[in-house]
Structures are given as structure tokens and as C-alpha cells.
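B., you asked whether I could sanity-check this one before it goes into the benchmark set. Here's the sequence:
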Amino acid sequence: MDNDRRFESVFSKKVKAGKRRTYFFDVRRTKGDDFYLTLTESTKKFNGHGYERHKIFLYKEDFNRFLTSLEEVIDHIKRELMPDYDYEEFDRRHEEWESRQDDDDDDGRDDDEGDDDDDKASEDDMAW
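And here's what the prediction gave me:
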């Protein structure tokens, strides 16, 4: 049973990124009651059967350097390589999409109708 506890997620954050890609940030517990972060990119396969997953394990001793470097690289892209790009575009699109999803949920349709099945199936398939 202690082995199961080791893989238990004590905190999770899910970030949907378009129709096929989702990122998961999971804080997990080690055998010694320490914590680490798993970053998972999950991409729905083109044939629609299953997912490809890529994981990064990030340990506390690397948090600061990882975050500093990630911010530095993103800032470089935003300021030097693509300064005129509207980086909030995708946030607005996602908010609009969520708003439409909320409207669809409120329109009286059964949960089994429409495109929501794909989203629910993918969320169920993602539980690990």
C-alpha cells in the first residue's frame, strides 16, 4: 500500500491546449515523504485511438533554475524573436471556447449529445 501512496498526486493542475493537447502538472510524494513535480504533455493520436504521453520529472533542487531558465527563454521569444505577436490571443480564444461550452451545457442537451463525448472520453482516459 505504501507503494501506491508514492504515486499519489497531492496536487494537480490540468491545462487544455487545443483539441489534441493537454498538459498536466502533478505534485507527487516520494517514499521519504518528499515531493516532486511531473509535467506531462498528453497528445491525442491522429487516428483517435489513445494518447502519446511525454513526462518530465522535476525535483525541488532544480525548481529555481528550471523556472528561471523557462522564464528567460519565454521572455527572449516574446521580446526579441516575436515582439509583435499577440500572446493573449490564445487566452481569449480559450475563454470564448469555455463560454461556448458553458452555454452548450445550459441549453438542455443531454450530456451524451454533441461533441462533448470526445472531451469526456479523453478526460476519463487521462485518469492515471
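One thing to flag: The first helix runs from residue 2 to 6. Otherwise nothing jumped out at me.
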